[in-house]
Structures are given as structure tokens and as C-alpha cells.
Amino acid sequence: MSVTKHPRRPPPLTELAAVIERPLRSNFATATASVVQCPDLRQPPFHLAASGLSGNPCVADIGGQQNLFPTLNLNAKYLLSSLAGDMQIGVNNNNNNNTPDFNNTDSLKVTNGTRVIQINPKTQSPTCDPTPSTNSALMLNLYGSDVKPGPVLKITARARTGEKNFTNCILEGLQEVYGESQPVSLGGAFLLKLARPSSM
């Protein structure tokens, strides 16, 4: 697999919080974006494989639309442990997402909390099931770090009042301020409470 690197200079978290909060407030009854110390993400309610999100952050865009169209490229398979090294730090007929949650900071012990998220076509309700596999296919967007404690963005939104959803509001805010000249990538964990996702 070919790897290209694009060093970035991300904006300060306090600046990002203000940029993100603005469009959320236009589409939700209450919305906040602030900088907080990252909780231990191994604990409830997150239950992730690693404790933090800080230290040498890195994002990766793997595969892509060319693996989906005009036909699925079933040979586009990726091993999370190899991808983690490159970052230096099953095929299903339903709409689904493989949500990698992988910690290999200890070379003798790999923690795999990866889940497969999909919408059940009969009930239209989401499922989030663990998978023992450390493989993925077609395309991925990954965030990796040294899993250290540190400051993070805490973004909340309740009671949607506008047409835009949570992620589209965040994207709109980033695009409006930074545009194409300064791409900004975010990584982290989402916690959905008392809501039903309308699409994935």
C-alpha cells in the first residue's frame, strides 16, 4: 500500500470549540463545545480500548470511493495492526460501518474493541456488535495517537431544531472558517443518548 504524508498545523482547541459551537447552536435547542481534560475512555460510558486521545495525533484516509464504485473491490482489505504501523503510532449487504477501536501500545498485548455498526433493515434500528476481527475493507477514516491523557473537545447537542444533523453542523463550521486551504480533521468518540440515528 502506498503511503503519503501531509503534515498539518491544527488550530488551537479553544478556537475549534468556538468554530464548531456556532452552527450547532443554529440547529439545536442547546449546544456547547468546550475544551476539557479527556476522561479515561476505557471506563463507562465509552468502554474503549485505550484511555486517552493525546500524543502525536495522526489521521489516515484509507481506500476510498474507488473501492465502492462502479463495483465493490473485495480485494481492498486492511489489517489494523499494519495500518497503525503505517500511521506510526467481512463483507455485509447492509449499510454498516466498521468502527475500529484498537490499542497496540503494548507490543505484547493488543486490545481490540472494534465494533460493527449497522442499521437493521427490518426494524430501522441501529446495532453495535463487537467483532474479533482486526481487519477492515473498502475504506476507512482513522484517528490514532499515543493514547495519552490531555485536553480534548467536548461537544454536546440536544433537541434538533434545524435541518442539519450533528456531524454536518461540525463540518459546516470547519468549512466556513478554514475552507479548502486549511483542512481540519477531528477524531474521537461519539456518545449517542436518547436519540436514534437517521442514517450512517
Would you give an account of this structure?
- 18% of the residues lie in helices and 30% in strands.
- The chain has a three-stranded antiparallel β-sheet with strand order 4-7-8, with no helix packed on it. Strands 1-11 form a two-stranded antiparallel ribbon.
- The chain is an alpha+beta fold and 200 residues long.
- It has three helices and eleven strands.
- The relative contact order is 0.27.
- It has two domains: 1-38 and 150-200, no CATH class; 55-149, no CATH class.
- The longest helix has 15 residues, at 13-27.
- Strand 7 (115-119) and strand 8 form a beta hairpin.
Descriptive key words:
single chain; 3-stranded antiparallel β-sheet; 3 helices; 200 residues; alpha+beta; two-stranded antiparallel ribbon
Q: Give the overall form.
A: globular
Structural class: alpha+beta
Number of helices: 3
Averaged pLDDT, please? 81
Which stretches of 5+ consecutive residues score pLDDT under 50?
A: 90-99
Number of individual domains: 2
Give the spatial strand order of the biggest sheet: 4-7-8
Please provide the count of β strands: 11
Please report which band the strand proportion falls in: under 5%, 5-15%, 15-25%, 25-35%, 35-45% or over 45%.
25-35%
How far is it from the N-terminal to the C-terminal residue, by CA?
Answer: 27 Å
In this structure, how is the largest beta sheet organized?
Answer: 3 strands, antiparallel
Secondary-structure element order, N to C: HEEEHEEEEEEEEH
Radius of gyration: 17 Å
Approximate helicity band: 10-25%
Summarize the SSE layout with pairings.
Layout: H1 13-27, E1 28-37, E2 58-63, E3 77-79, H2 80-86, E4 96-99, E5 102-106, E6 109-112, E7 115-119, E8 126-130, E9 135-137, E10 139-144, E11 151-160, H3 166-178
Antiparallel strand pairs: 1-11, 2-10, 3-9, 4-7, 5-6, 7-8
Helix pairs in contact: 1-3
GO cellular component, one term: nucleus
Organism: Penicillium alfredii
Domain DUF1907: 19-200
